[in-house]
Specification:
The complex is a heterodimer of chains A (336) and B (441). Chain A is mostly helical. Helix content of chain A is 73%, strand content 1%. Chain B has 2 domains: 353 residues, ABC transporter involved in vitamin B12 uptake, BtuC (Orthogonal Bundle), CATH 1.10.3470; 76 residues. Classes of the chains: A mainly alpha (336), B mainly alpha (441).
């Protein structure tokens, strides 16, 4: 019984939040890794692309709410999501035309691209703050829980409750659908194959008649979709604040590098590695320990390895370890 | 017009802007107050020093450091640790324990490195390293936590930290540089020699972590409770106002005592900062002209060729990365001294990292004078973009009713125009004038 209770507590506070957060990071890291694979630079504006997409989704959500349109038990944001994706697609393609294309034609060094993306990040950040303000926005509605802690206790008779938030359920389901469609696209369609060919060997791909500009545009469209979905899911699960999205850059980059920059599969694995480590290291294990250990050995403190304020330190430490021992990442990314 | 004349004129123009700020209220932009002019100048001088450090990294070596905020904050911490008086009793209550814990923590990491080298080739190496780290971590926390608790419970409303050594505050400036250099060494050691993007990501991360340490380790820096009233290298206004000689002198110059005292203090800072800036600028110029500087630029322009000539690219990069970060640390210590308070909550990457980048790019990367000019000019603009943005919005929305929702929103959000403008300037300069106002020779 105690063991079951410990297991439920573990799922409730570590596994479920970790899986949801991991899915969000994985979607974000997929975007970063695609840009890296095709355009060959680390896009610092990715966090703010996510913020922009989420902002548009939020604005449409509010509009739908004022019109009385809703999705029943599901959050209205899901209805607004396609509009957010379209707006973000327009923004990133326009950015590419206005800014990045020039440097592509110049064949600029990657570090110049990184710096340019820094400028883009500034402008997107300013735009988002200008439109929606720097504050916290909550926009989730509909049913809050799939399973409530109390219902679970009554159902099973355990002392420990298990709660699954709707946002967590939606996150996982959406992430699975998006990733499945993405891999189908990359592996089965003509455009997807040309993208992979371009990423593997630019010269050979050009030689075989692949239009590079078309590949680039498709990449941006997919990245806009991934970024908006990731941002909206994160916003539904926690809350939306422009600065938080900027800070998400670090775990997202860490996830992409841990998995191997340029490898989509690696980005997903990296997302879960980072998210799980973050949750495990900042969780107070007292509750689980109480169920598992005999009374005499029960810990006095919270058994928390690091306070939650240091969650960025976790992704950073993992990043450093990977850079030291295996700079290409788990799935053998492109460059060192 | 020769290059030198043109570049001198640019500096004169910045001087003129500061002069106008001090004398006139024309155009609704200038405030006509010498106090405000000197405030801008002081911060501009500090920014120029930071830009000098970043220029060393980017302009000389092509290294992309996005963690300037972290190094600046470390400089600020140095001021607290060097200049504040020690909190009575803190050393005996928990200070020794904390020091012991930190030594134990360092020993753990050193032990793990030792295991890594001693056991190379053996299958059990990762397990042994993990075991050392985990055991070490628990011992570290076991020793540290009671010490931290003891220190933080000493008069938490006013102190609650270990305080500092009570030494003269000017000593904190070089110490800030040393602290920043130490962290730069760790980062450089891991991320240099890999792809250029990795250094950017690693520095971005370390800056966030330094900040979260400053915000959360109350025993060290009082966290978000801030350390205020740091000692100053210049006299206090109140003392000046109570000094009859000073008041008399001020009256002779036609100032009242209050204005004269604030101006005197600010001017004191300006002179100190200018002295530091000139010394660093001279050193950077000498380095640029030396064989070492030529080697650096050769490495930047063609790493492979430089490597073939027998230059150790990675360790040269490490060298210059540490030097540049140390300059940022010095500037950070100077800034905290100027504010006479350490407020970890106010550091944000847009202001302390990316703005410095805009300064370097606009001024002219690879040219030390360009970096200094960029620092002074962009700081002036940064201060003035806000009133300008507000003015612009006022004009744009003049036709709308007072309580029009859009108008209210636009006026309220005008402050966020800063980020947008800075990003735009950065992109425009990178695109149309990538060599900046004073290009590299």
């Amino acid at each position: 019984m105690d063991f079951l209770n410990a297991l439920v507590a573990l799922s409730n506070f570590v596994l479920i939040p970790g899986i949801a957060y991991g899915s969000q990071l994985a979607l974000g890291a997929l975007g970063v890794t695609l840009i890296y694979g095709i355009l060959r630079f680390s896009n610092f504006a990715h966090g703010d692309t996510m913020a922009f997409g989420t902002m548009v989704t939020i604005l449409f959500t509010w509009w739908f709410q004022s019109l009385g349109i809703n999705a029943g038990p599901l959050p209205t944001a899901l209805l607004a999501l396609p509009f957010g994706i379209l707006a973000t697609m327009a923004l990133v393609v326009a950015t590419d035309r206005a800014v990045f294309k020039f440097y592509r034609q110049q064949k600029a060094k990657p570090v110049v691209f990184v710096m340019v993306s820094l400028g883009v990040m500034f402008m997107m950040n300013g735009l988002v703050r200008f439109i929606i303000g720097p504050g916290d926005q909550r926009f989730s509605d509909g049913e809050r829980f799939i399973i409530k802690a109390r219902t679970f206790k009554q159902m099973t008779g355990l002392d420990e409750g298990l709660a699954i938030k709707t946002s967590q359920g939606i996150t996982v389901v959406t992430a699975i659908i998006v990733v499945a469609v993405l891999f189908w696209f990359l592996n089965k369609t003509r455009t997807g194959k040309s993208m992979r060919a371009y990423s593997d060997n630019e010269d050979l791909a050009l030689l075989s008649g692949i239009n590079p500009e078309r590949v680039v545009i498709y990449t941006w469209l997919i990245v806009a979709l991934l970024a908006t979905v990731a941002g909206t899911l994160y916003g539904l699960d926690k809350s939306f604040k422009p600065f938080t999205y900027f800070q998400l850059l670090l775990p997202i980059f860490a996830a992409a590098i841990v998995g191997g920059l340029g490898s989509p599969l690696g980005a997903i694995a990296g997302g879960f590695v980072i998210a799980m480590s973050e949750v495990i290291i900042t969780y107070a294990w007292k509750k689980v320990a109480q169920y598992l250990l005999p009374e005499s050995m029960e810990p006095d403190g919270l058994v928390q390895l690091l306070s939650t304020d240091y969650k960025f330190a976790v992704s950073f430490a993992i990043l450093i370890v990977v850079l030291l021992f295996k700079p290409t990442g788990i799935f053998k990314g492109k460059a060192v | 017009m020769t290059e030198t004349v043109k570049h001198t004129l640019l500096f004169v123009a910045v001087g003129l802007l500061l002069l106008l700020e001090g004398t006139t209220t024309a155009f609704g932009v200038f405030s006509g107050s010498w106090n405000s002019s000197l405030t801008i100048l002081n911060m501009g001088l500090i920014s120029a020093i930071m830009a000098l450090g970043v220029n060393l990294q980017w302009g000389f070596a092509g290294l992309f450091n996005v963690g300037i905020m972290g190094f600046t904050a470390l400089g600020g911490l140095a001021v607290v640790l060097i200049a504040t008086p020690a909190t009575p009793g803190a050393w005996d209550a928990g200070g020794q324990r904390i020091l012991l814990a930190l030594i134990l923590g360092a020993t753990t990491i050193f032990g793990a490195i030792l295991v890594y080298h001693k056991m190379s080739g053996k299958r059990t190496r990762p397990l042994a390293m993990i075991a050392v780290l985990i055991v070490g971590f628990f011992i570290y926390r076991g020793v540290l936590d009671p010490g931290v608790e003891a220190v933080e419970s000493i008069n938490p409303a006013l102190a609650g930290n270990i305080g500092g050594l009570g030494l003269p505050v000017l000593l904190a400036w070089p110490v800030g540089g040393i602290l920043a250099a130490g962290v730069a060494w760790v980062i450089g050691k891991t991320a240099l020699g890999l792809r250029s993007d990795y250094l950017a990501i690693a520095t971005l991360g370390i800056a966030e972590i330094i900040l979260s340490v400053l915000k959360n380790e109350d025993w060290l820096s009082r966290g978000v409770k801030n350390v205020v009233g740091l000692p100053r290298p210049v006299p206090y206004e109140v003392d000046l106002q109570n000094n009859p000689d000073f008041v008399e002198q001020a009256a002779a110059w036609g100032f009242d005592a209050t204005t004269a005292s604030t101006l005197y203090v600010k001017l004191g800072y300006s002179l100190l900062f200018t002295a530091v800036l000139l010394v660093l600028l001279w050193m950077a110029q000498m380095a640029l002209k030396s064989p070492w500087g030529r080697m650096m630029r050769a490495i930047r322009d063609n790493e492979v060729a430089a490597n073939a000539m027998g230059k150790d690219v990675t360790s040269r990069h490490l060298q210059i990365f540490i030097l540049g970060s140390a300059i940022c640390g010095i500037a950070g210590a100077m800034m905290t001294t100027l504010d006479s308070q350490l407020t970890p909550g106010t550091y944000n990457p847009l202001r302390f990292t990316f703005l410095i980048w805009v300064m370097v790019i606009v001024g002219g990367s690879g040219n030390n004078f360009g970096a200094v000019l960029g620092g002074l000019l962009v700081w002036f603009l940064w201060i003035k973009v806000e009133p300008l943005g507000l003015m612009l919005m006022d004009i744009l929305t003049a036709g709308m009713a007072e309580d029009n929702g859009l108008r209210v929103h636009l006026l309220e959000s005008a402050a966020h125009m800063r980020l947008f403008t800075m990003g735009l300037i950065l992109l425009l300069v990178l695109r149309f004038s990538p060599r900046g106002l004073i290009p590299e020779k």
